[in-house]
Design goal:
Blueprint: H1 13-61, H2 70-94, H3 99-106, H4 108-115, H5 121-137, H6 152-179, H7 183-201, H8 205-208, H9 214-236, H10 241-248, H11 251-263, H12 269-288
Helix pairs in contact: 1-2, 1-7, 1-9, 1-11, 2-6, 2-7, 3-6, 3-11, 3-12, 4-5, 4-6, 4-12, 5-12, 10-12
């Protein structure tokens, strides 16, 4: 059972503020990454982010002190591969669709995990609400056949990132039993070993490590990895799990607002309606479905 604010003898507003700051940091990192796409491409930004993020996580968690067993190898491999897939596809999605929409579509992954085995009527209501949100986003029907319709390939990338997130949770639950919080550093290393060469091959590595790009890559790694992860760990120890999950459901809205502010990505009414359906479903799932464990995501 997670600790409540009263158990820590403090106000809940501080951890709530830290969690909101964490979400703003993650989405700001994503918007900065999108600004860098024209220079080294989405694969290149993914490669640089994973490389620098792994270096930061290694300094924080010192995973070389850990011991490995046969039982832990498969879960940690699955965790790292899914982490890389999630990040790679999410950045590819950002090349053609708005940040807030990409985050909302990616959220279908953890929602699917949370709702797996749903039995109560309320659980099925959240599933229907997610499907409704997706229906508003799919480029079908006369009301959605407009000039501002979303790129279907970008949407598939975002949904693929959501599938990666779902696998990340499943494998993360198993790997976390062996390595605890240090799991993320090991997973990030595996993701970097696979997706750094892939991203570097599809980019100009000399530009990637130039003095004009490298500081931006470091800022993306800090904003999307080290800083928000630290804030979320503090918030997680001071908020009930249900409150934490409900607040995290606001991330698509935060992504949309960051996209509007920094990327000038203004959503249509239909897109806002779709995003709202998915956010409400996320909140409802967090409030009514009892989670088996707590898994953190580094995006």
């Amino acid at each position: 059972m997670s600790a409540s604010p009263r158990q820590h003898g403090g106000s809940p507003w501080l951890p709530i503020g830290l969690l909101l700051l964490s979400m703003v940091s993650i989405q700001s990192g994503a918007s900065l990454a999108k600004m860098l796409f024209p220079v080294i491409g989405a694969p290149g930004v993914t490669a640089l982010r994973l490389l620098l993020g792994t270096a930061i996580l290694f300094i924080i968690f010192k995973p070389w002190r850990l011991s490995f067993t046969r039982a832990s190898v498969l879960p940690i491999l699955g965790y790292g591969i899914s982490l890389g897939i999630m990040n790679y596809l999410f950045y590819l999605a950002l090349t053609t669709i708005p940040l807030g929409i990409a985050v909302a579509l990616e959220f279908t992954g953890p929602l699917a995990v949370a709702m797996f085995g749903a039995r109560r009527p309320a659980d099925f209501f959240w599933i229907v609400l997610v499907i409704t949100g997706l229906a508003f986003l799919l480029p079908i029907g006369s009301q959605l056949g407009q000039l501002e319709q979303l790129d279907p390939i970008g949407m598939l990338y975002a949904l693929g990132a959501g599938a990666g997130w779902a696998l990340y949770i499943i494998f993360g639950q198993r790997a976390g039993k062996f390595y605890g919080a240090a799991t993320v550093s090991l997973g990030s290393l595996i993701a970097a070993l696979i997706f750094f060469p892939l991203g570097a091959f599809n980019s100009d590595i000399s530009v990637m490590f130039s003095w004009a790009v490298l500081p931006l890559g470091l800022a993306i790694a800090i904003l999307s990895t080290a800083f928000p992860y630290s804030l979320e760990m503090v918030a997680l120890t001071r908020l009930p799990t249900r409150t934490f999950g409900t607040l995290m459901s606001l991330e698509p809205v935060v992504g949309a607002m960051v996209g509007i502010t920094f990327l000038h990505e203004h959503l249509t009414f239909t897109q806002w309606l779709a995003l709202t359906c998915i956010v409400i479903a996320s909140m409802g799932a967090a409030l009514t479905i009892k989670p088996k464990s707590k898994i953190k995501k580094i995006k």
